[in-house]
Every structure is written in C-alpha cells, then in structure tokens.
Specification:
Number of helices: 7
Number of strands: 6
Largest sheet: 2 strands, parallel
Radius of gyration: 21 Å
Number of domains: 2
Distance between the termini: 45 Å
C-alpha cells in the first residue's frame, strides 16, 4: 500500500499555472511539476471537497486546467460539512459547524483515519489586538477564570503577539 498524501490547492496552482517571469515562482512551478510526475507513481494522492471548490473558482481556462489535474484523484470523505481543512505540521485541522461535528468525525472514523483529538470550541470571527500592561492583565484574568471550579473552558477573541506573551510570563 502506497503512503497517502493530501494535495492542497497551492500545489495545483503551481502545477497548472501559466509560466511565470518571476524566478522564485518559476522555480516553484518547476519543482511542483517534477514532484507531481514522481508522486503520482509513488503516493496515493488525495484531495478534499474544499480543494475541488477552490480549484473551481477563477479564470475559466485555469479552472479547467486545475480540475483536469484533479480528475484522477480520490476525494477525502470529509464531505461538504467541513468548512476548513488545513495542515498544521504533521496533523490536519478540520473546522466544521457544531451541527456537522459528529457527522464529519464519524466519516473520518469510517474511513479509518486516526483522530488525535476532537472538540467543540468557540472560534472568534474577529480578534482584538491587546498589548503592553493590558495584555498582562487580560492573561491574569483568563487564568483566574480557568481556575474557577464551575468553569470548564474559557474562550476569547484577543490577539497577543508572541513577544508580549513571553514577557507576560504565559
């Protein structure tokens, strides 16, 4: 059995785009095309419905080229209920609505994909930047709330940069 590799939209972009005059982009296009010729024989390449949706948008000629490249690739069974599908290191992060949570999870299990963790979480639609002394105060408040016995999870929409976070001792 060949190893399975998930192909995301960027790969299709470099694979099917018109030749670029930018040396960096042209290099990425060449590397991607060389990799593709190799990978189709060595890996089971798969895509998600989300990749199909993204590949279907834009210039009709480019869309046709991308969809032609996708034609032979199986679609992961995450389904249309998944709202976002992204790679984070060695893992994939799938975001879905609370109503579709169990259906997506069951679909992955049925196809024997390992699930390291699955949880319902509040994800902010917008964030608020917090800096300086306000960031330290806010982090202390979050810790105090998390320490309360009646609180199981604390969600927020603040954005604190890594430097400020390190300075606050979090």
């Amino acid at each position: 059995m060949k190893p399975r590799v998930y192909v995301e939209t960027t790969v299709l972009g470099y694979l099917t785009s018109w030749p670029s005059g930018d040396l960096v982009v042209a290099g990425r296009q060449k590397i991607t095309r060389d990799w593709w010729r190799y990978a189709v024989n060595v890996f089971d390449l798969v895509v998600s419905e989300l990749v199909h949706r993204e590949a279907s948008a834009g210039d009709p000629q480019a869309t046709g080229d991308r969809l032609e490249a996708l034609k032979a690739l199986p679609v992961l069974a995450v389904g249309q209920r998944a709202e976002d599908f992204a790679r984070e290191g060695e893992q994939y992060l799938i975001t879905t609505s609370p109503g579709a949570f169990h259906a997506v999870q069951d679909g992955l299990k049925a196809r024997r994909y390992g699930i390291e963790s699955a949880e319902l979480a509040m994800v902010p639609k917008s964030t608020v930047r917090v800096e300086g002394p306000d960031a330290a105060k806010l982090l202390r408040l979050m810790e105090a709330l998390e320490d309360l016995d009646d609180v199981s999870k604390v969600f927020s929409n603040f954005d604190i940069d890594a430097t400020t976070l390190a300075e606050a001792g979090a």
